[in-house]
Write a structure and sequence with these properties.
The chain has about 375 residues and is of the alpha+beta class. The protein is built from 5 helices and 15 strands. The chain has a domain at about 170-380. It has helices at about 5-10, 10-35, 105-110, 130-145, 280-290, and strands at about 170-180, 185-195, 200-210, 215-230, 230-240, 245-250, 255-260, 265-270, 275, 300-305, 310-325, 325-335, 345-350, 355-365, 370-380.
Length: about 375
């Protein structure tokens, strides 16, 4: 058999082998390019994966301290006029001794002679009657008893925790308002809440109104003050309700007292004290600093228009809210009613993915009326 006839008879086999080798080369090249063995200098944009992240809830720690009590101090009464103790009646005087007989004229002449005694006796000291001694001893005691009692120093309540804080950035909130009265009547309206802070001072403005034929403002609250290591530190809060006079709450940092324009009472000003407008943002600051702080009760002294009360907040859990901004994963904190202090329940929903901003606030009154404010838009301040 010649070479030509050999290759001619094996032509199909050779063609099949060549095709197999070529396919293997193509396969190897494709595989290498996809596992990074071949660098063809091509750049790919990173894939964007959208996911709704859930922040792990802190472990609940049972509170071992009772909720602190804050006692008011009434206005100081006018000082009473001191009364002097009445002296005891003086005892009857002792009988005087009988007079001695007068010397005769001759005796007087003899006493004047040099041989006589010319020394003169010193006059006797004046005698003090028992009555005078009693009066002198009783007068200092009377003056001392007339002194008013010194005011006792009011002890600050124990059990108030100090929290780490990290204030959220400034923002303006537009909110939808829904209210259901105790008789079932429903109202709707809107609210705006403006939070401003430059790191050393802050300001909060809140307006709430309802819409009937036109918008009616029901509540306006303005709070301003400073920022310190404890977070928000109010100086003045002003509140104006429809058909009522404006009231003011003053937080005197120098005297460490809370006073009111609508009341003569005063309360001790504790570290971390807030007013009703700043509470949601102080809670946001606590969450931003360390979420584990929500594992225990959050006690905050809150000054209102006529009084100051400890608000004890507890973390209920994670909830998903339907808002005009879409679905928001929130942490719900609640302040249950406290018999003897307040009958309303306060719930605040914070959004961890949005700087722990308050995105819903609900007040459930003791008579069953419910007012809910839900965020519709958050406008952040451009840096």
């Amino acid at each position: 058999m010649t070479i030509v006839s050999f290759f001619s008879s094996r032509r199909r086999v050779l063609a099949l082998c060549v095709a197999t080798v070529a396919l293997h080369m193509v396969a190897i090249d494709w595989l290498a390019s996809h596992v990074g063995l071949v660098d063809d200098n091509r750049k790919f944009s990173p894939a964007v994966v959208k996911a709704d992240l859930h922040l792990a809830l802190p472990q609940r720690v049972a509170s071992v301290t009772p909720e602190p009590e804050i006692k008011p101090q009434e206005a100081a009464p006018k000082p009473k006029r001191p009364h002097k103790a009445r002296p005891k009646p003086a005892p009857a005087p002792e009988p005087l001794p009988a007079p001695e007989p007068q010397p005769s004229e001759g005796a007087l002449t003899a006493a004047a002679t040099p041989e006589g005694n010319t020394s003169e006796s010193a006059p006797p000291a004046p005698r003090t009657s028992p009555a005078d001694q009693t009066g002198a001893a009783s007068e200092p005691a009377a003056v001392q008893s007339a002194q008013p009692d010194a005011p006792q120093q009011e002890d600050e309540p124990s059990g108030i925790r100090r929290y780490k804080v990290n204030l959220p950035p400034p923002a303006r909130f537009e909110m939808d308002v829904k209210r259901t009265d105790a008789d079932g009547k429903k109202w709707s309206g809107s609210a705006s809440m403006n939070w401003q802070s430059d790191g050393s001072t802050y300001k909060v403005d809140l307006e709430v109104g309802i819409t009937v034929l036109f918008r009616i403002n029901l509540l306006t609250v303005n709070s301003e003050g400073t920022v310190d290591d404890g977070g928000i530190s109010p100086l003045t809060m002003r509140e104006k309700r429809r058909n009522r006079s404006e009231t003011a709450t003053h937080f005197n940092q120098k005297e460490r007292r809370i006073t009111f324009s609508a009341s003569d009472r005063s309360y001790p000003l504790l570290a971390g004290t807030q007013d009703k407008a700043t509470v949601p943002f102080q809670l946001a600051a606590i969450g931003r600093a360390d979420v584990n702080q929500f594992g225990g009760d959050i006690d905050i002294l809150v000054g209102e228009d006529k009084s100051a009360t400890i608000y004890r907040f507890q973390l209920v859990g994670e909830e998903e809210l339907e808002t005009d901004m879409g679905k928001l994963i929130t942490w719900r904190l609640t302040r249950p009613p406290k018999p003897g202090s307040y009958s309303a329940r306060l719930d605040i929903w914070l959004a961890p993915s949005l700087n722990f901003y308050p995105v819903q606030i609900r007040n459930t009154e003791g008579n069953g009326a419910v007012t809910t404010e839900t965020v519709t838009k958050i406008l952040k301040e451009e840096q």
